[in-house]
Design goal:
By secondary structure, this protein is mostly helical. It has four helices and no strands. It is 61% helix and 0% strand.
């Protein structure tokens, strides 16, 4: 899966979980400061990414992922490692 496909799917999860318009989501968008994610929604985002991509995300590693672009990079790496 290429990075543009990962990005498109990440944006889809972000829009569903945070109830934001896709036009507001950019790679540099911060989940909390730009998109308004609260702590419970952060957990829902991780669960949404896991379900969307069929991966498991370590909770501690997820704490370091704070922007949409970082999520795309992180998920792309997880998919690559999964093989």
């Amino acid at each position: 899966m290429n990075s543009s496909e990962v990005y498109r799917r990440v944006v889809g999860v972000v829009c569903r979980v945070l109830n934001v318009d896709g036009s507001l989501v950019e790679p540099e968008s911060h989940f909390v400061f730009d998109l308004g994610a609260e702590s419970t929604q952060s957990i829902q985002l991780v669960a949404g990414f896991e379900a969307e991509f069929g991966i498991e995300i370590d909770a501690e590693a997820a704490l370091g992922v704070q922007t949409v672009g970082a999520a795309v990079d992180f998920i792309a790496q997880q998919l690559k490692d999964k093989g």
